[in-house]
Structures are given as C-alpha cells and as structure tokens.
Recover the amino acids of this structure.
C-alpha cells in the first residue's frame, strides 16, 4: 500500500517547512524505521514542500494505516523539533491511487508556485536516486517514481506548460525586474554555487544581466571560474552585498547569509533601493532585513502570492494527462497484485501437461497438448488481468486458489 505525507507552503507555516527541510537528508532512513509495517520510504524536499512516500505492508496485522502514519509523524516531529499536534494538523495524507495522481501532478509542476516549473522533475528523480542509494526503495515505490518522471515528460511534450521554461527562479527574476530600471545596468550578487545558482545565473543572463558576482560561503571557486564570474571573498562580502542592486541567495546552509544586524551595518544610513531574492529553504535571509530602508525582500511567501494564474486550457490538458497516467498506473498495480495466482496457475497447468506429455504417443499429440494448454492459460490469465484492471482481481484470485489443489505441507 502506497501512502504519502505532504507538508506544503499553502497549508504549512514556512517556519515549520524550514525545520522539515533541515532534516530532509536524514529523514528517510528514520521514517522507514518508524513502524514495522513500513517497507520503504522516499523523501522529496523542495523550496516549498516536504513529502514522504511510503510503501506499507498490506498483509501486516495492523488494523489500519493510522498507526504507521502516526509513528511517521511522531518521528518527523522529533527530527524537526516541532510539536506533534502541529505536524498532524498541517500535513496532508493520501493513500492508494491518490498517491500516484498527487506525485504525477507534483512532478509535472502542476502543484508548484510557478505552474509547470522545470526544476521539480529533476528533484523527483534525485529523491528516488537518493532512496535507492540508501536501500530504502521497494518495487512499488520504484514504479511510482519512474511513472512520475514519464508523466512529467508527457506533460512537457504535449502541453504549452513546457514551452516557456518556467521555474520559481525565473518567476522571482521577473518580479525583481519590475522593480529595476534595467537589468543591463544592475549590479547583481549571487550567493551560492549549487544547482539553484546555475539556474539563477541562466535566468539572469536571459533577462540581460551582465554585472554578476558570486560569493560561495564554502569558498568554492569552480562555479565562478567556469562561468567567468567575479568572485566575492568572505572579506569583501558585506561591502559587496551593500553595494549590489540585486542579491539572490540560494544556499543550503542553515544560518542566514544576510542578517538584519550585519546587512544593516554594511548599508549604514543608505536608503538606496535594493532587491533581495531569497530562494533558500530554510530561509537564507533574516526576515528582519525587510525593515531596512530601501529593501524589497522577495522570499518564497512573497513569490507565491505574486505567482501568475495560468490559462485554464493549459492546466486542463495537463491535468487530463496526469489523471490518465494515474489510472494506467492503478490498473498496472492491480494486475500485479494477482501475480501470485498467475504463477500458481501456470505451475499447475505445466505440471499436468508434463504428466500427460510423458504418456504422449506421438509428436503430433505432444504438439496438440502444448497448444491446448497454451490457449487455456492465455484465456484464464487474460480474464484475470481484465478483472484486476477493473478492481475485481481479488475475486479471480480467490477462484484460482479455490480450484487449484492445495500445496503440499511439510507433514505431507
């Protein structure tokens, strides 16, 4: 049984999301061990969501999924140092095929701040890769995430959502541009050298920014050297931050890259306009910086409020693709659930066939028996798959178990 716990910026306070994002790297292992019925776990953490996908043992004696999910939420609360009640009240819960529809929509960018954003599909793939590396995946989770990647590709290729190269970063840069006279004359400081820094740099260059400097809090130079950017040292960082027209922060460190005291001291009495884009999760910029004269802080909450409403037709087509993919995934999973009975049926027919072939009088008789058994099996199994796809596979499986001889026991 697939289950998903979702904390999203729409329903979860940003401060709580920040705490969850801090523990995301270690959460999957702890969550898998939270309850005996949890067979696998994959954690997906982005700038505006924290999600945990579980594969639960459907044959376990637990009367419902609630004990396992309560245990998982208790573990999350402990890891993030949040009250259990707050976690339970702000985390959404999905199970069964609702999990597939949700993840397929997430991977396709339909649940993002910038609808159709590019980055989320890669984050979904990396979440699976991380869980696989740590030995936390199961066959149902592998299939779920692989189908999610395929669905996101179908949405991108079949709708206009994939044409404009949407992303949270591009949306933030677009919002910042409305507050500047010109990107060509703007002095930009990029804080961070990771994946989001690369996306931010591409978005900046796309709007015509040329004076772009980069500061790596860890001292890395490779990104700046490769891209031909001016490197800002730790000693010059405060002064460069004060002089910049635009600052974009996108680091994974847990302490603030810009603080009220530090940035206030660096700016002094200046009231010069400055746009700060905080793409970090947890936040890279102290929210108090917003109180400084001339500062326009665009954090994730602000960006979400200003996200544009996309055309209905674009979203409708994308949601139809996601819904159809979720239905196909459900049908495939239901067919998979009758696999033990299919194997048992094949084994029984083969054993009967082997016994009859031992008495076959001629090659013609053997050929006829093999043809007969093949046609018989094909019809029975095809019927089972059809019923399973429609949600009635359990009746077919029960019938197979009823008519087949009981397997021998050790005592026999």
């Amino acid at each position: 049984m697939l289950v998903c716990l979702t904390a999203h910026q729409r329903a979860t306070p940003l401060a709580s999301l920040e705490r969850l994002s801090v523990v995301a790297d270690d959460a999957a292992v702890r969550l898998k061990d939270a309850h005996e019925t949890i067979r696998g776990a994959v954690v997906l953490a982005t700038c505006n969501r924290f999600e945990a996908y579980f594969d639960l043992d459907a044959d376990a004696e637990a009367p419902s999924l609630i004990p396992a999910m309560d245990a998982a939420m208790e573990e999350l609360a402990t890891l993030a140092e949040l009250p259990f009640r707050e976690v339970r009240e702000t985390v959404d819960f999905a199970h069964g095929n609702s999990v597939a529809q949700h993840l397929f929509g997430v991977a396709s960018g339909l649940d993002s701040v910038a609808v159709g954003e590019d980055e989320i599909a890669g984050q979904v793939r990396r979440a699976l890769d991380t869980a696989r590396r740590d030995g936390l995946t199961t066959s149902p989770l592998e299939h779920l995430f692989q189908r999610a990647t395929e669905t996101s590709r179908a949405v991108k290729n079949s709708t206009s959502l994939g044409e404009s190269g949407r992303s949270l970063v591009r949306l933030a840069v677009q919002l910042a541009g409305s507050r500047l006279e010109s990107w060509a004359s703007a002095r930009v400081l990029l804080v961070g050298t990771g994946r989001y820094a690369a996306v931010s740099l591409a978005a900046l260059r796309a709007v015509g920014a040329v004076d772009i400097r980069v500061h790596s809090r860890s001292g890395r130079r490779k990104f700046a050297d490769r891209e031909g950017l001016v490197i800002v040292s730790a000693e010059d960082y405060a002064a460069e931050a004060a002089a910049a027209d635009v600052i974009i922060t996108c680091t994974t460190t847990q302490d603030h890259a810009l603080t009220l005291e530090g940035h206030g001291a660096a700016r002094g009495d200046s009231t010069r306009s400055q746009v700060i884009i905080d793409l970090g999760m947890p936040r890279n910029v102290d929210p108090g910086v917003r109180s400084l004269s001339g500062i326009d802080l665009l954090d994730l909450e602000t960006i979400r409020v200003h996200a544009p409403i996309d055309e209905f037709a674009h979203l409708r087509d994308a949601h139809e693709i996601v819904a159809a993919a979720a239905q196909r995934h459900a049908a495939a999973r239901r067919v998979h659930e009758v696999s033990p009975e299919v194997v048992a049926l094949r084994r029984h027919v083969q054993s009967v066939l082997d016994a009859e072939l031992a008495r076959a009088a001629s090659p013609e008789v053997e050929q006829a028996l093999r043809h007969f058994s093949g046609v018989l099996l094909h019809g029975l199994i095809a019927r089972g798959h059809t019923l399973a796809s429609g949600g009635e596979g359990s009746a077919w499986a029960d019938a197979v178990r009823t008519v087949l001889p009981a397997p021998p026991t050790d005592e026999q």
The chain has three domains: 2-165, 168-305, 338-403.
